[in-house]
Design brief:
519 residues, 22 helices, two-stranded antiparallel ribbon, mainly alpha, two-stranded antiparallel sheet
């Protein structure tokens, strides 16, 4: 009886939370709730039980709550008859609530506590089928990576406490604004604060080289995949955006995010092209999108990264919850499809290089982040349009498609950026924050080299018409062999054994194979 009540309790609770978030959003939009509001129950003199409800946390709270409610509703029928259904809904509520506290936290300590609870809840959800060795192995890989991130974040918080004397966001950002950054930013502890926060965010958002666990979580219920890929995976990016008033001044951290984000975006996109399994294809798509989001944060386009989070979350939640409908549209790599001509390739690379060069030259005018992101978007748009089978072979007519679509996309891009930027003004570091010439030049060169190489490699992977290209295809098909290597290392120190559970919903196949050693 209790098992049957939990789906109703969890679904009702999460829909009530979503309704509360919607009401608060309406109040803020109407001006009845200030853009930065710290809410404390009663008259508590300390900030531990407080919530920071502002133009950044409230939309994220609304997105997380709505996503959790939709996943819970979907799971009622999806897990009907599963003997562990009650357990699933309990941990779903715990995880969703923890993520909500994370985005609403007013200080680093409460955010870190919610970070830990979120990791624990997700670990339990990944073990929904504990008799499946693949699920256990993926959960353990996630456990190891998460502990690396926890240590990095905890160390960074301690350094922040020692340097600024506070971990409250409001007081911390005020101290940052009053500091003499040309001198302070060069201090060793400030650089380490930025580096450690960047590492922690990279582990949470599955960035290279911490990405290998995410594609192996496919033996979890689809509901968990939707929650993880559309919600929890954004925690690293949100954390960087929340700390943007601090991190925008730390050049080392910004360059780390540019390099890691660009490499992750390109590598995961290449691997995604080769995958035949629809869930793995979506998993690598998530990794690539998170890499692009981290790249945007690294170049200072925090508003664009925030917009990216919302758009990607909606798309990825729908994709996972409607996976069956995507199978016919994604039957593996489309080998032998139309290729870019030499002229088209030259046009794409030259146009992108020109935009990025302008971004670096005009970096002292506040246009650097916007133009650099626009250059990357232009490169991807050229590849999509010019290799589309519908326009292949039309010769000059392709250019008549490319130019207006590029201009229209750029206009929409700028409009959405302006709307989002005005909404979070004063909460997120503005894109007009001028980077140093070293950061601007290095970011521009890295972006052009990495994304340009990915642009060319994608054509090689799709064609795979020579021995060298076939080797690249197999390398991408195996995910760079990161999965097999990390599995061999982990099982050497932490072997996975098949177990039998008496629960009614225990996996029948695992029962039949019980007692076998999984190496």
């Amino acid at each position: 009886m209790t098992q049957l009540r939990w789906p109703r309790i969890a679904t009702g609770f999460l829909w009530c939370q979503a309704a509360l978030a919607a009401v608060l959003a309406v109040l803020m939009a109407s001006g009845k709730l200030s853009r930065v509001e710290v809410v404390c129950p009663g008259s508590m003199p300390f900030s531990w039980p407080c919530l920071r409800v502002d133009a950044l946390s409230l939309p994220m709270f609304l997105m997380v709550s709505f996503l959790g409610a939709v996943v819970a509703t979907y799971s009622v029928s999806y897990l009907k008859g599963d003997g562990r259904q009650g357990r699933f809904f309990r941990y779903l509520v715990v995880t969703t609530t923890a993520v909500s506290w994370f985005v609403l936290a007013p200080n680093l300590w409460l955010a870190f506590l919610a970070w830990l609870v979120t990791s624990w809840g997700l670990h339990r959800l990944l073990l929904h089928f504990p008799t499946r060795p693949g699920a256990v192995l993926a959960a353990r890989k996630k456990f190891v990576v998460s502990r690396i991130g926890d240590v990095a974040i905890l160390t960074a918080i301690l350094l922040v406490q020692e340097r600024f004397g506070t971990t409250d966001y409001g007081r911390l950002f005020k101290s940052v604004g009053e500091a003499s950054w040309p001198t302070l930013a060069g201090a060793a502890d400030i650089q380490w604060i930025g580096i450690l926060f960047a590492i922690g965010a990279m582990t949470k958002s599955a960035q290279f080289p911490f990405h290998f666990w995410l594609p192996e979580t496919m033996e979890t219920p689809t509901s968990v995949s939707a929650l993880m890929h559309a919600g929890i995976i954004n925690a690293g990016g949100y954390f960087i955006i929340r700390l943007s008033p601090l991190l925008v001044h730390i050049d080392t951290a910004r360059l780390m995010l540019v390099l890691a984000g660009a490499l992750t975006a390109v590598f995961a996109a290449l691997v995604m092209i080769t995958q035949n399994d629809i869930k793995k294809k979506l998993a690598y798509s998530t990794i690539s999108q998170m890499g692009l989001m981290m790249f945007e944060c690294g170049v200072g386009a925090y508003v664009v990264a925030l917009l990216h989070i919302f758009l990607h979350s909606g798309y990825k939640a729908h994709a996972f919850l409607s996976t069956g409908g995507l199978i016919d549209a994604a039957q593996g790599p489309k080998r032998g499809s139309s290729q870019l001509s030499g002229l088209a390739t030259t046009f794409a690379l030259v146009a992108t290089g020109g935009v990025m060069m302008v971004a670096v030259v005009w970096s002292n005018r506040g246009l650097f982040p916007l133009l650099l992101c626009l250059g990357v978007t232009l490169l991807g748009l050229c590849q999509v349009i010019l290799t589309d089978a519908k326009v292949a072979g039309r010769g000059r007519m392709v250019w008549l498609w490319t130019v207006p679509v590029t201009l229209a996309t750029g206009a929409i891009y700028l409009f959405l950026e302006q709307v989002t930027g005005s909404a979070v003004q004063g909460v997120v570091a503005p894109m007009t924050a001028l980077p140093s010439q070293v950061v601007a030049a290095t970011s521009g060169v890295l972006a052009y080299l990495i994304f340009g190489a990915g642009f060319l490699a994608a054509q090689a992977v799709v064609a795979a018409d020579s021995p060298r290209r076939q080797k690249l295809y197999l390398f991408c098909l195996n995910g760079g062999r990161w999965g097999s290597k990390t599995t061999a290392w982990l099982t050497r120190f932490w072997p996975v054994q098949r177990r039998v559970f008496a629960a009614p919903g225990a996996d029948i196949k695992a029962k039949q194979l019980a007692g076998e050693h999984y190496a």
